Structures are given as structure tokens and as C-alpha cells.
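ok trying this again, last paste got cut off
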Amino acid sequence: MMSLLKVAWIFYFTCTFVFGQIRYTVPEEKDPGTYIGNVANDLSLDIKTLSLRQMQVVSSTEGHYFDVNPLTGRLLIKNRIDREQLCRANPVCLIHFEVMLENPTELRHVEVNILDINDNSPEFGEKEMTLNISETVALGSRFRVERAFDPDVGTNSVSVYHLSPNKHFVLKNSNPTDGSEFPELVLERALDREQEKTHLLTMTVYDGGYQQHSAVASIIINILDANDNPPVFSQSQYVVTLEENAPKGSLVIKLNATDLDEGTNAEIIYSFSASTTSKALGIFTLDSVTGAITLNGSVDFEEVSRYEMYLTAIDKGPYAEAAHCTVLVDITDVNDNTPEITVKSAKHSVPEDASLGTVIAFIIVGDKDSGPNGHVSCMISDGLPFQLKPSLNNYFSLITSDLLDRELVSQYNVSIWASDQGFPVRSAYTNLQIQVSDVNDNPPRFSETFHEVYITENNLPGTLAGKVTAEDADAGQNAQISYLFIGIPNKSQTSSTYFSVGAEDGAIYVLTSLDYEKEREYQFQIEARDAGVPQLSGTVTVKVFVVDANDNNPEILHPSPMKGSEVANRIPRSSSAGYLVAKVSAVDADIGHNAWLSYQLLKSNVPELFSISKYTGEIRTTRQFQGNDSSSYTLVIMVKDNGQPALSATAVLHLDMMDSSPDVLPNVNRHYNSQENMSDLNVYLIICLLSIVVLFFVIVSVTIALRCYNASDLDPRLNLCCRQEDTIGRGQQVSSSLQPHGHQTYVEVYGNSSLYKVGTYRTVPQELKDDFITIDFPGTNNSNACIQQFQQLCLICDDNVRPVSTSEVRVAICLLIRVFDHLCIIMCITQFHFTLELTL
């Protein structure tokens, strides 16, 4: 017996795969926690990764009876299962549910077959049954007695009836094949009321379970005198339909049994037999006289779809016999249930780089109605990058249908509608919020490609020069920006020596004190990096412009301070008012207002005799010298710039009176010595001059050779490539336009008569957009010689150059002469500069 029990338990807990689904079998009434099977092993899942897949049971609306261990995959009973309550008299009781796995998301269907156990005993509707049988009844007549009811199914249900031994009756249908058969008493021996009025019988019913149960009912048979005709129903079974939610008092059916007798023997009384369930008796009411069955309660298709009622009709005559019939009431479904929406495994966020078809959530829709009323369609709102994909029956997968971009839309509100196909249509609605999580797909960006910073020179180390700011369209860690200094080589040093950047705020700091006169502009790059993976970056080019400060004193060029600050000059006593005594020249290393110089006569032993031009530095007499005037004068000149605060320099000029003008004017300021005081600049100028002369003769030789070679092609009247302008006369101004590097420069030579040899030059600042080099020659002879030399060297070819032939040789000759034109001007300027140095 024990071996059979073990075999039965092994059979109960065997799982099979049916149509790709897992099926387990378990008896009812098992304690919670009872092991059913291992889903992970049956699905061939890796136990090592099972904890990451978050295995869980997705139950339907029938209730939660099972649970699964997410770490081991063991399927256990969660709540006690009563098969009779769950499936009633259905021969097969299946519970359907799904097991869901994540990472990746999977859904597996599982069925559990609930086996019946013999936990209920058969019961008779009445413990005592009474039969009234006429004594004239024929042999072989059958008399149906009430059957027993057992909630169990199969072999655990009613199996056999046993009738106590007697002389007149035997039991028919003692082994019912289904629950609809009734046991019947068959008369085998005639009755005799005079001999025995009442017969007492005992009927015992047994079920077929392992632990057999039984029930006993008593049958009292009263022998009646003859009532010839019993009532008769037109049908042994009536089938009617009734809509659920029908109003109370609705007529279900009206029975009509007939009796051929007359009088009281034909008056029929209707009643429910004891086999009618108590639930049906509570819902339906029978009129015993008319046989009308009416609705006394509410019917719900989702709860009970069919009711069975057993009725008896008996006349009022003596020794009446009963007629029996069955009424089946089928409840038809109406669309009275709204669809239900359940969202499972809804991800709180989905990365913006999620691929198409990524599963976001499982949506379960259901409707308790049946037929079209229970067929549910599901849809989501339009215009979203998501779509519903049918999975299993009433299961949908919400997947991505388009690429996502968190920077455009960071959150989606997905509206889900479920509608049935009944009339009227019923719908359900729910809302699902989906967050789009950020990925690092946007580099930091600066608002501008170039960023300019201005800082005044002589700044303190660590001064904040400016700030750059980058923005990142990403969020969280992907938008956390740090700044990195990237220097661009600047001459022999890198910009990192001078500047640094704050890693967190992008502030630009100056590490050292800047000097405008050494370097006016710096350039470097700053890189902004985010903290995402992979790390992205962006750069901006920073240009730092150093603003000039008035930190340089004016430098006096003439009188030259090389041999002290005192310089002596001679003035003829016959000079008239306005005579140019001397000219003070100074420069300032600063620019702009800081380099605008003004001249002022600070001290003079005869203040009313001399005046100085405020902007040119020319010192002139204010009147003619008189006989009582002193023979020597000392002047203190101050040169002051226009900066804030203003800086200045002073020079002392000694003037000596002389009675006549010498033929050769001595240089009282400086005596040139070839062996001393020869500056390096003069040496360079001499070398440059000699190189230009040699180059000049080479170009002239090549030009003459080419012209002679092509003499036959030229017009004799235009034998020269360029013509010379008229000779510049004495005291005239000579101007020549130079255009190196696109800038216009003018060289001007002035000749004027002066008793004293004073040579100066002045360059007007770039801000005036015209650069002038002015050379003054006071001596008449020297002026004429220099002008003639300048004409010969600088005016060989000028703007009057015109090609006289279209031949390529003529064009080449003219281009060579053009090159020489620029070279000769440079040579001329160099000669004058060198002459000026010797003069000063």
C-alpha cells in the first residue's frame, strides 16, 4: 500500500511541456510553501545569473496561488487551493499564470493542474425519502429516488449505490457513470397493501476515493390504493436562457404537467425536488399551483453560467404518483464588465540610446465577460516613439518604435486604452510615465569660438582676467564640466607660464605680471570636459590683449644723453625773432594717450628770450638779441606724456652766442670717432648699403643685356622702360610712396636754410594711419647734394612706369625695374639714416 502511495506522489509532481508551455500537477489542499517544481531547471536557465533576472509570477485576476523563489527558481504554493471552490465540478482544473524574467525580458506560460483528492463525503439532499406507490403498479415499474452529491470529481465522486436487502425492489443505476444519473427502484414483485402498507429500505452511497467515504439515506415506501394516471410533463428536460442582471421577478419558465384523471386526482402541485441546489432555491421561486418559475435574486454570468433545477408534479388524488422533469437555465452574458489593465515590469526609465524594439513594459488586459464582450483590444496614444506588440493571449509588450533623445523629450506620458467589442463598448484607461535616462551624447559647447580678454599690464600675479563658460545639453554626471588649460606655443615660452584656468568655474587667472612693451597679445585654448563615459570635450580659443599702462618715462633722443644731460649749441647773435635754436626729440615706449608727448621750458636764465613748441619741441627765439644780452644760456626742458599719472624726463641745453656763422658748422654735441662710439646699428647699415649697391649693379647689367637682345622689337621712341621726372629743385619736398606689407609709408626730404646744422626725423604714430619719415637739412649745399642723390636713386622708376610693348621680355624688364624701385628707396632711407647718425 505504501509503494502505491509513493508512486502516486511521484505522478502528482511530474511536470510536462505542452505546446511549448510548462505544466505541473499538484493535489489540492496542500500547505503553503509546498514545493511544486523548479522552473529554472525546466526552462534550462543559468542558476548563476538567475538573481539578476528577477524572476516573478505574473498572476491573472483569479488570485495568487503560487510564488517562485527568484534565486533558485523553485515554484511553491502560496495559498491553500480548494479545487471544489475554484473549479466546481469541472473534470479538469487548470490554473494559468506567467513567469516573467528580466534582463532580457521574457515571459513564459505555466499551467498547474489541480488534482482532486477525496476530501468530501457524499451527501443526500434528504436523509429520509418517501415514495407513495400504488398497489396496482405493474411489475418492472421504476421509481427514481434522490441521488447523492459529492463535490469531488472523477473516482473521488459518487461511485456506487447499495440498497438494503428486500423482497420487492432492486436498485437500478447503482454504478452511475456521471453525476446526472439517478438511482431507481425497480419493482420485481407485486405489492399488496393488505399484507404490508409500508416498506422501509436503506440506501448507502460510496465514493471511489482512496479513503472511501459513504452516506446513508432511508427510503419509506407507502403502498397506496390505485390512482390510475400520474401527472405527465411534456418534456423530461427544459432548457431556457436568461440574461444576466435580469430584473427581479422576471419569468423564467412556466411548467405545465397534465393528468388524465379528473377532479382532485387531476389537480397538480409543483415543487422543487431535494436534488435542487440551495443556491438555485435562493435565486428562483416556483409557484406550486401554476408551475411558473420566476427570478427572485440576481444572476451573474461570470459567477454561474448555468443553473439546474429538478421539479416534481404530483396530483391531489389518493395514492398520487409524482412526475419529474429537469429545468436548465443558461445565463447569457451581457457587457457589464469594464476591461482591466495591469502593467507589469514597467521600467522607471529607458536610456535615450535604446535600440528599436526594446521592451519597456508588459501590459495585461482582461475582461470577465465572454464572447465579443470579453474580446479586448489595446492601443496607446499617437505621436509617441512607442508601440504595442501582442505577446500572448491578452498580453502586450510596450516597445520602442523610434529613436529617443532626452535633450528633446525627457519624459513621456503614455496613455493606454483597452476596449471590448460588446455593446455598448466599455473601455478602461491608465497612464504610464516613462523617463528617458541620459547618455553622454553631447559634448560641452562654448557660446563662442573665440573669447577675448583684456587686462592692464603690471597686474598682480593671480589676478582674475576673465571667465569662460561651457554648457552641456546632457544631464547629471554627463553635464558636469571641468576646464583644462591647453597652451599654444608662444615664442620660446608656453602660455601656461602666464595663465591658468579654474577647473570648476572656468576662471582665467594671470600667473605673472604682464608687460605690454614685451608682449601685447597671448593666445591659448581651454578645453571643457564632461564627466560622462565616454568623456566628451569642446575647446575655445582665448585671446588675451594686454592693455598699455603709463609705466614708461619719455626718452629724450636729442639732446643725446650719452655724455651727460648737458648739451651745448651755438647761436649767431644776429639771429632774428623766430629763429630755430634747437629741436628736442623724444619717444615713449607706451602707446596711445600714454605716448602723446608735450614739451615745456622749465627753466631759463632769460625766460622771455626763448620759447618751445608744446607739441614739436622746437626752441625758437622770441626776439632779436641785444647788445646787453648774455653770451651763454642754460635751458631746462621737460618732456611729459599724457598718461595718468603723467611721467616726464628733463634735459639741459647750453646755448653759446657767436658773432658770425662758420662755413663749416661744428657738431657741438658729438665728435665722431671711427674707433670709438661706432654703434652696431651703423655697422649693419653699412653692410646693408654695400649689399644693395652690389645688387643694383647686377640688376642693371641683366636689364641692359635683355634690352639689347630685344632692341629690334622695341619702338625707338620708347627706348626706355621708364622716364625720369623733372629734377627737384632746391628746397623742394621729395615724397616717395612705399608699400611694404600693405602699409603706406612716405619719405619726405625738406631743404631750408639755417645757420646751424640740426638733423631730426619723426615717425607719426600708426593710429594716424599714415607713417611719415621727415628729414630736414639746414645746409644749402648738403641739401642739394642729398636731393640730387635721392632723385637719381629713388626716382628711376615710379608711378609713371608704363610698358611700351606687350611682349613678354618687355614685361619682364619692367618687373625687374619695379623690384629695383623698392630696393633703391630702402637704400636711400638707409643712407639718410646713416648720414643722420653721423650728423648727430
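PB: full thing came through this time. The CA atoms of residues 749 and 775 lie 5 Å apart.
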